[in-house]
Amino acid sequence: MLDKDAPKILEVKNLKQYFNVGRKDEVRAVDDITFNVHEGETFGLVGESGSGKTTTGRAISHLYEPTGGEIIFEGKDVSKLKTKKDEKEFRSDIQTIFQDPYASLNPRMKVKDIIAEGIDINHLAKDKADRDAQVEELLETVGLNKEHANRYPHEFSGGQRQRIGIARALAVKPKFIIADEPISALDVSIQAQVVNLLKDLQKKRKLTYLFIAHDLSMVKYISDRIGVMHYGRMLEIADADELYAHPLHDYTRSLLSAVPVPDPEFERQREIVDYDASVESDGKQRKLVEIAPNHYVRAADDEIQMYKDRLNS
Amino acid sequence: MADKAKQLPKDAFEPLSDGAHLDNEKIAAPSLTFVKDSWRRLKKNKAAMISLYILIFLFVVSFGSALIPAFSSISTHPNLNNLPPRIPGIDIPGFNGTLVQGGARVNAYTGAAANHYFWLGSDYLGRDLFARTLFGTRISLLIAVVATFFDLTIGVAYGIISGWIGGKVDTFMQRVIEILLSIPNLVVMILLLLVLKPGIPAIIIAIAFTSWINMARLVRAQTLELKSQEFVLAARSLGESSFKIAFKHLLPNLTSVIIINTMFTIPSAIFFEAFLSFIGIGVPAPAASLGTLISNGQKSFQFLPYQMWVPAIVLSLLMIAFNILGDGLRDAFDPKSRE
User: Fold this and answer.
1) Are residues B238 and B111 part of one domain?
2) Is residue B229 part of a domain?
3) Which sequence ranges are marked TM in the entry (chain B) (predicted)?
């Protein structure tokens, strides 16, 4: 499924995103994280609420000015885009699908104009007829009726709205899509619909995804590689199957132990692994260490051996 | 049950044709735009609709009367002064030209006045009160238009800029507003009278000074809320410019706040003008304003009550109508009240 040698489309190097810097209420939403995303893969980002997943996504799409570190997209540093043309190109290469389908569509705009916003900004349509044709094609791509173009967002269900959001993101023909918990506001039957749509689109349009979620089973289903975040730090990165088969970090283990399984026999004997977050702030210098090939864990020097033993046990 | 299901032959099910799922997504309800939907809800609110009709009526009558030259509000007839209302063909006490004098009802239209009809009576200089009330209403409505204008221009722009830019600019702009707000309107007006003659221009400038502040604050608060909404983030991540975001995303979502607040600014501006005229620093004589009419009528209220009743009723009607209409609009624009 994943081409391991595919070129890196996105490199995040020591990204730091602080808010209210220098004030009493300084928040370190993202604190020194590093990861790469290869072309054509789906990189899942999981972690509990407030662990900095969304902030990471927004920093990548340059909605925030990073406090430190670099975000390199296709060889160019995102925060050093000089010309308007570069900026525009970047804006249409990276698109975001937002979490809340009720908040992400302007209630006062017709679906047609919502979807065509990116087309208008980048002057992708020759004339009005071409613009309408593109909108209709996009609506059909995401499985909606083309007659929906003249309606307003409040007339749609959550799943339909989320698909409108996807159509808007696709309008500018992006290469990289940040899916910021695109399914967590939808009910389960609609979740599958949207996730399968995302998978289809990835195949057809050769998209790269950064898939942010806290639903671990869904992340496993869609992702090739997964990064686990906590307190704004990246704790573990591994291939999806590897991470689920051999979780190394205590936090990952704790997360996985909480995934519900539709089997009452299993559920009765479920063992919840508690995670003590105070370990993280014991003052030791930690960084991501490659314990096994392509399996990184945030560890101090004296912990490396412990993780290696864990992997082999 | 489960066993039975297994015995179904294979051809019991037919695959759906391609594209059949698209039909599931059809929406049968007619598409309603925001304005249509709000209008539909406003129409259901009887009090608001009556207020709307009253306001339209007052607008048409007061501005229409300006086109009739014979209908003068300032021509005086010293021999026809202080006549009570008399409407031809109506014989109801209060409208038939009679007055209560010394405990008995007497006809006031005697001598030179016998052939005159003042529908709403005349004042101490024999001026037609009906014409004067209409003239005063015209001034009140003019003030309403002026207050709306400043609300929509200065207020909205100030609020959006302050909220959207945020940070230090926002703090500075809000402090400026607080300083303006701390100066009483009356003081502004009196200071203005040092440089200007009393009259409509001075009142308009006083209104321009402060009436938009409430609007600016509300718009700023709403902008702050909208700013972090995901659809604004989506527009930013598409590379939309701030100016376009303000017009395409912020303004349309601010319309309800703007319209509703305008409806509450208007009555207070109308009252401000009437108050200034009442205390004698508003519209100068001989022009009429509802405030001066009430002030004049109040002096002889015990003997000639109609001279105060008429302008007082019109002023109250105006303010109540604007308030109820504002209330109705608030309900109509609130999507949560959608049934």
Assistant:
1) no
2) yes
3) 50-71, 139-164, 250-270, 276-294, 306-325
Residues making up chain A, counted from first to last: 313
Chain B residues near residue A157 by CB distance under 8 angstroms? none
**Domains within chain A, CATH numbers bracketed:** 8-312 (3.40.50.300)
Residues B95 and B178 in one domain: no
End-to-end CA distance of chain A: 28
Chain A residues inside the 8 Å CB shell of B335: 107, 154
Tally of structural domains, chain B: 2
Q: Are A254 and A275 in contact (CB under 8 A)?
A: yes
Range of the domain at B276: 44-71+122-337
Structural domain contains residue B128? yes
Distance from CA of A108 to the nearest CA of B (A): 6
Cβ–Cβ gap A143/B249 under 8 Å: no
Distance CA A195, CA B91 (A): 81
Interface contact B230-A154, CB threshold 8 A: no
**Residue A144 with chain B: CB contacts under 8 Å:** 22, 25
Beta bridge partners of A298: A288
* Share of residues in chain B with pLDDT > 70 (%): 91
Contact across the interface for A118 and B238, Cβ inside 8 Å = yes
The verdict on B101 and B171 lying in the same domain is no
What angle, rounded to 10 degrees, do the helices at B290-299 and B306-333 form?
A: 140
Question: Which residues of chain A lie closer than 8 angstroms to B166, CB-CB?
Answer: none
Which residues, listed in sequence order, are joined to residue A288 by a DSSP beta bridge?
A: A298
Note whether B189 and B202 are same-domain residues.
Answer: yes
Sheet holding A76-77, edge to edge: A27-38, A8-19, A68-73, A76-77
B231 touches A: beta carbon within 8 Å: yes
pLDDT > 90 in chain B, percent: 27
Q: If contacts are CB pairs under 8 Å, which of residues 19-48 in chain B contact chain A?
A: 21-23, 25-27, 29, 31-34
Pairs of residues, one from chain A and one from chain B, whose beta carbons lie less than 8 Å apart: 88
**Sign, Cα dihedral of A163, A169, A175, A178:** negative
> Sorting pLDDT into bands at 50, 70 and 90, what band is A279?
confident
- Please give the residue of chain A at the shortest CA–CA distance from B335: A154
Instruction: Tell me if B319 is assigned to some domain.
Output: yes
Asked if B27 and A152 come within 8 Å (Cβ–Cβ), the reply is: no
Note whether B155 and B265 are same-domain residues.
Answer: yes
Whether B271 and B148 share a structural domain: yes
B35 min Cα distance to partner chain A (Å):
10
- Chain B: nearest CA to A196, how far in angstroms? 15
Q: Give B-chain residues touching A63 at CB under 8 angstroms.
A: 233, 236-237
Indicate whether B235 and B177 sit together in one domain.
Answer: yes
- Mean per-residue pLDDT, B113-128: 78
Confidence of residue B176 (pLDDT cuts 50, 70, 90): very high
Q: Distance of CA A232 to CAs A29, A65, A71, A75, Å?
A: 5, 16, 16, 25
CB contact under 8 A, A145 and B252: no
Q: Are B287 and B142 in contact (CB under 8 A)?
A: no
Both B107 and B137 in one domain: the answer is no
Reply yes or no on whether the pLDDT at B2 is more than 60. no
Round to whole Å and give the CA distance between B55 and B103. Answer: 39
Q: What is the CATH number of the domain that holds B50?
A: 1.10.3720.10
Domain membership flag for residue B99: yes
